[in-house]
Write the structure tokens for this entry.
Amino acid sequence: MKALVAVKRVIDYNVKVRVKTDESGVEKDNVKMSINPFDEIAIEEAVRLKEKNILDEVVVVSIGDNSVKETIRSALAIGGDRGIHVMANIDLEPLGVAKILAEFCKREQVDVAFLGKQAIDDDFNQTGQKLAALLNWPQATFASKVIIKEKKALVTREVDGGLETLEANLPVVITSDLRLNEPRYASLPNIMKAKKKEILEVSADELNIDYKPRLKIVKVSSPKERGGNVTMLPDVEELIKTLREKEGLI
Ligand code: AMP
């Protein structure tokens, strides 16, 4: 059985994002970039399934400019077998990404497509769902546990106030939630090995797919600064007194 794992290059989650002065987007020059954290969880899950001999091969796909090769290498260092870099010099929207991923799910005849539940830069949370719709495959999103057995996937999902377990026939699209696993640190030998793994480069334009964005970013702005008007009160009694007598709020 084969899995495809989609990984996106995003601004590292530790970086304090700065808005460009012309408000057209966020500053990405000289900013630390990393694999989207949910995609790191997705690759870890696929690699664990391979280590349990449930999967035979894990193929990593990323769409973007030349810099995403580094993101693919990070996923290969965790244990992916080979990579596919779909070269595109514009930022794609979820529909464009899903169309391209659908093409590679078909070409590679994969049994499971693993994605992150959302990319932490645009926060769309759409690509996995659109991919499942385009392929007409079942989808199990926000996975916190995955069992694959006898051509079926049993996926536990985090839903409001509890957990839901779904069963789906393969092939299936699964998107990872935070508690699915804790990704390993890639060891130095594995980072070295990843440098030798195959990465196929394909131009998005050669695929005959309309991946053009449908949306135009009108403006990006920083959240309002929080007011510095904070008063520390010694205890709850004083808080209640202040809310009642000074603020007239209760
Ligand atoms: P989104 O729907 O944009 O929040 O992204 C959900 C998931 O889709 C991500 O966690 C990735 O697994 C995948 N994805 C989004 N954009 C890309 C991309 N450019 N290349 C590869 N995978 C992507």
